[in-house]
Automatic annotation (TrEMBL):
CDD domains in UniProt: D-HYD
UniProt gene name: hydA
Enzyme Commission (EC) number: 3.5.2.2
Segments forming domain Amidohydrolase-related: 50-443
Family (UniProt): Belongs to the metallo-dependent hydrolases superfamily. Hydantoinase/dihydropyrimidinase family.
Coiled-coil annotated spans: none
Top EC class, one word: hydrolase
MF term (GO), any: dihydropyrimidinase activity
Name of the protein this chain belongs to: Dihydropyrimidinase
Cofactor: Zn(2+)
Length: 476
């Protein structure tokens, strides 16, 4: 027969359609989608299941150095193992330039980490912490040509923060290169001011992490990033948006006609700042420390409003895992002395799809097609992977997740495949769960078992984002 594999009898869901169809796969690609295909060399019965494009998580952190802090709990092996178990087939982590380092050399370090270790396909965004003349003039344009077509910049953190002048210079460079800029919007000085005041008052429990960076701090930085993007005429993606105020800034910009995009994450519809209180303001609140911090129930509703009305294009995990008990069982005592030393980030690459499916599709807030757009298709389009990734149609890579829409699970650490020693979603009941994950036609995960191998995943040289074209056109 014509096919290496036929996935038979499932309901195929894309960002546009929901149809009962068979999917024929040949040489790692989708060869046919039709009502009824003849058997291939192999056949899988998907009756009762949804067949969706594999999740694309365009915001994960793997193997990032911690600047003297604790090491990240996931490198490429455990992080992508967790990704495929959770129904994903592509991740886009970050290659971080430490200050003083060459960007090209930093990218090479991440390739060394990823090479032969990844269970799924991957690209890299570039984190720019030191936008020197040679970085802006030579390194970035060459790296964009090589498929690193998006940058992330930070408006906070001692080791990463860019001042307004530097933000403008990176934005202007991105405009010239056709790269898409992702911005971490929280104001550095306001956070420092609050952190020092809270520590002086003896307020050092993890909960005060949330108090030190309230929504106004995120809203101000979001507005500032948007204004700089307008000034330089460059499209920007505002990442990890936590609540109403930053969401409304993005909506305001979009209504003005600016090319401002938005990303949100599971923690902003499933956790609140109260989680950072732990048990009676103890250190267990450290399991929920991430930035921006989770807010409150009204913020969840604001995030849903932004999802439903198209303010947000992507729903990413911001998977950024650290060990609660300390690296390899060694306690991280400094993190217990003040919230300021608790590393910012939580694991979530494996739970992103079930959380959005359960709260979004099952609870009636979004359609199946919107689910696919938010978790896969829009990531591919936004970051230059379309039309290779992100849909189910002839010619696309056969990256698929077979999804049981009725399966009830309780998220628990024992189910997870990540390197971290906890999940912040412990005990959360969800409906809808990945049953099998196919990477370019290969079964890589099935029922929580990892079937693929490290090295199955390869590097994706990404094209320019069609969303990164400046509103006023490219220079000639
Ligand atoms: N920003 C991220 O994107 N991830 C984790 C922490 C942070 O500040
Ligand atoms: Zn440039
Ligand atoms: Zn960030
Ligand atoms: Zn992140």
């Amino acid at each position: 027969s014509d096919f290496d594999l036929v996935i038979r009898g499932g309901t195929v869901v894309t960002a546009a359609d929901t149809v009962r169809a068979d999917v024929g796969i040949r040489s790692g690609r989708i060869a046919a989608v039709a009502d009824r295909l003849e058997d291939g060399a192999a056949r899988v019965d998907a009756s009762g299941l949804l067949v969706m494009p594999g999740g694309i998580d365009s915001h994960v952190h793997l193997a990032q150095p911690a600047f003297g802090g604790p090491a990240m709990a996931d490198g490429f092996e455990t992080g992508t193992r967790s990704a495929i178990a959770g129904g994903n087939t592509t991740v886009i982590p970050f290659a971080l330039q430490p200050r003083g380092a060459s960007l090209r050399a930093s990218v090479a370090d991440y390739h060394k980490e990823a090479d032969g270790r990844s269970y799924c396909d991957y690209g890299f965004h570039l984190i720019i912490s030191d936008p020197t003349a040679s970085v802006l003039g030579q390194e970035l344009p060459a790296l964009v040509d090589d498929g690193y077509t998006s940058f992330k910049v930070f408006m906070t953190y001692d080791d990463l923060v860019l001042n307004d002048r530097q933000l403008l210079e990176v934005f202007d460079c991105a405009r010239g290169c056709g790269a898409l800029v992702m911005v971490h919007c929280e104001g550095y000085d306001a956070i420092r001011f609050m952190t020092e005041r809270l520590e002086q008052a003896g307020r050092k429990a993890p909960y005060y992490h949330a108090v030190s960076r309230p929504e106004s701090v995120e809203r101000e930085a979001t507005h500032r990033a948007i204004s700089h993007a307008e000034l330089t005429d460059v499209p920007v993606m505002i990442v990890h948006v936590s609540g109403r105020e930053p969401m409304e800034q993005i909506r305001w910009a979009q209504r003005k006609g600016l090319k401002v995009y938005g990303e949100t994450c599971p923690q902003y519809i499933a956790l609140t700042a109260d989680d950072l209180k732990g048990l009676n303001m103890d250190e267990t609140g450290g399991k929920y420390v991430c930035s921006p911090p989770p807010r409150d129930h009204a913020s969840w509703e604001a995030i849903w409003e932004g999802i439903r009305t198209g303010v947000f294009q992507t729903f990413s995990s911001d998977h950024c895992p650290f060990y609660y008990e300390g690296e390899q069982g060694k306690l991280n005592p400094k993190a217990r002395t003040s919230f300021r030393w608790v590393p910012n980030g939580i694991p979530g690459v494996e739970t992103r799809l079930p959380i959005l499916y359960s709260k979004g599709v099952v609870e009636g807030r979004i359609s199946l097609n919107e689910f696919v757009a938010l978790t896969s298709t829009n990531h591919a389009k936004m970051y230059g992977l379309y039309p290779r990734k992100g849909s189910i149609a002839p010619g696309f890579d056969a990256d698929l997740v077979l999804w049981d829409p009725n399966r009830k699970e309780t998220i628990r650490q024992e189910l997870m495949h990540h390197g971290a020693d906890y999940t912040p979603y412990e005990g959360m009941a969800v409906t809808g769960w990945p049953v099998a994950t196919y990477l370019r036609g290969m079964l890589v995960a099935e029922e929580g078992r990892i079937v693929g191998e490290p090295g199955d995943g390869g590097f994706l040289k990404r094209g320019l984002s069609p969303y990164a074209v400046p509103a006023h056109g490219r220079e000639i």
